[in-house]
């Protein structure tokens, strides 16, 4: 019957200290309320009395603690226990903090996210921010909602996201305040005042709030009411048992406790198989050393994916791993806790959130060059295609086609990666109300246009230019007939292509120009349009070799086309079908508007070179935009097998019925086709966006594009 602390030592054992606590056999109040509600027809008025009894007792415990200079800092339903005499006890002082007149406030951000006060959360980032014992009052207010609604506010969010939402949102309330008394709602509102300096103390709440201010006779009546309901619980189905105390610890390489869960109940048989390091956010003590150790240990086991809260961390293995096949995709069609972290799980989770909440979702891919972002994006698309179509092969083939084309025009070799994406890509996948893919839309941003004119050293220009040179410099028959013979001879003769790196040696590229134009043909690009694409690209190659010379006359300003580069200059004129004089003027002259008049100015050699480079960048940028337009046009017209069904937008989504085949968006023989239509607008559609973002970059020479890329990553 001893309760307290005592030492145990003898000649054969080391000294040990034992903490002996009272057994609260009924268990947590939050669990007890759920059990009573399941097995009994619990009246709303009686439930409110039981809540008032539990909160009053907890407030008395907090009043005693605060008077003793202790703040609990982790008040919640699972830490409020019921004894066999139906008294209320507040437990678990593992993160409690001391305060005094000399040090009345603390600044440690600790607790359980759903119950943490805004001022406690703020201390994580604002190191000069402080809080006092009234943080426990906020936690008690959240507990009051938990006991009434059955769960704490924001319980559907990940704990990490809760820390962002609590300071931004207004104080929470009961889900349906009309079901409860005014005193209950007023008590919660008093506890959840966001300005903690205006929040009442435990002592004030006990005296000023009618919800918890009642005499000892009422306390006895409420205790007896709790006893009566508890004793009615069915012994066959839901029998209240003593909560088994179990201390679960995981030891790292340095023998430090990293995870402590004193209360573990109803553990499933497979729980011991789940590695706690699958999600590093679940670990109590996480620092840089622990993070690196965990990731390295998992990587050595070929576990390249690790969760950190809502974030999936992926390490590029630089080798093939059999974890991206269809069998793995099928496993991750449902969210299961026993599955290892995977990019497929992210796709499924986001898809479910979109369908359940009817809100657009976004997946952001970020990392250094060569970290595997593009591969991860392809896996995301593949899983979403399976979720949103069932027969994903057709859509996957189209998306593979898209990626091949985008890599040709938007990727280049850098010092870190031979196939680095040099543009940002946003892919919007639109779904019908039944979760089937309607169409796909692609957007690009931050195209590294500077690379067109500044490829040097161990970096290269965009892949498409080398595909052109590799084809025409080696295929002397010029079978495609997409470029005139004279320009073809120029390509064979001149090797110093400035934009592509000096003295290009004609090394074969892995890309085939014929294959690329076959892809363009599949995208419904006409022969004339293909010829125009080749003309623009070849013109840019020649444009890099256009040089300038100063006028030979003494003191005459301006410059002209260098005679040595006239073959390149003339090739550009013929390819783009532009006038000789106009082309010369556009490079060697510039026009200024002043007071409504146009003033023509002769360019210096440096200014003419800047104009030439700007022309090359503009040509390539406009061509890249047109490629994006062609892809979007293709996806809009080719995904006709997935029409949008016009239905009442208020109708709820029945996901189970859809996956069981009871609902289908595909029209069947005999259906009234007037019920089906395609719309060009996005109204009524849900979407998932996949943002493939640049990683942080720093080169020997950093352009405006690197500034934009790095700012985007910092945000």
From TrEMBL:
<dbReference type="InterPro" id="IPR052409">
    <property type="entry name" value="Myosin-III_kinase_activity"/>
</dbReference>
<dbReference type="GO" id="GO:0030832">
    <property type="term" value="P:regulation of actin filament length"/>
</dbReference>
<dbReference type="GO" id="GO:0042995">
    <property type="term" value="C:cell projection"/>
</dbReference>
<feature type="domain" description="Myosin motor">
    <location>
        <begin position="275"/>
        <end position="715"/>
    </location>
</feature>
<dbReference type="GO" id="GO:0003779">
    <property type="term" value="F:actin binding"/>
</dbReference>
<keyword id="KW-0963">Cytoplasm</keyword>
<keyword id="KW-0677">Repeat</keyword>
<keyword id="KW-0966">Cell projection</keyword>
<keyword id="KW-0206">Cytoskeleton</keyword>
<keyword id="KW-0505">Motor protein</keyword>
<comment type="similarity">
    <text>Belongs to the TRAFAC class myosin-kinesin ATPase superfamily. Myosin family.</text>
</comment>
<dbReference type="Pfam" id="PF00069">
    <property type="entry name" value="Pkinase"/>
</dbReference>
<dbReference type="InterPro" id="IPR011009">
    <property type="entry name" value="Kinase-like_dom_sf"/>
</dbReference>
<keyword id="KW-0547">Nucleotide-binding</keyword>
<dbReference type="Pfam" id="PF00063">
    <property type="entry name" value="Myosin_head"/>
</dbReference>
<dbReference type="InterPro" id="IPR001609">
    <property type="entry name" value="Myosin_head_motor_dom-like"/>
</dbReference>
<dbReference type="InterPro" id="IPR000719">
    <property type="entry name" value="Prot_kinase_dom"/>
</dbReference>
<feature type="domain" description="Protein kinase">
    <location>
        <begin position="1"/>
        <end position="212"/>
    </location>
</feature>
<dbReference type="GO" id="GO:0005524">
    <property type="term" value="F:ATP binding"/>
</dbReference>
<dbReference type="InterPro" id="IPR036961">
    <property type="entry name" value="Kinesin_motor_dom_sf"/>
</dbReference>
<keyword id="KW-0518">Myosin</keyword>
<keyword id="KW-0009">Actin-binding</keyword>
<dbReference type="GO" id="GO:0016459">
    <property type="term" value="C:myosin complex"/>
</dbReference>
<dbReference type="GO" id="GO:0004674">
    <property type="term" value="F:protein serine/threonine kinase activity"/>
</dbReference>
<feature type="binding site">
    <location>
        <begin position="367"/>
        <end position="374"/>
    </location>
    <ligand>
        <name>ATP</name>
    </ligand>
</feature>
<dbReference type="GO" id="GO:0000146">
    <property type="term" value="F:microfilament motor activity"/>
</dbReference>
<protein>
    <submittedName>
        <fullName>Uncharacterized protein</fullName>
    </submittedName>
</protein>
<dbReference type="InterPro" id="IPR027417">
    <property type="entry name" value="P-loop_NTPase"/>
</dbReference>
<keyword id="KW-0067">ATP-binding</keyword>
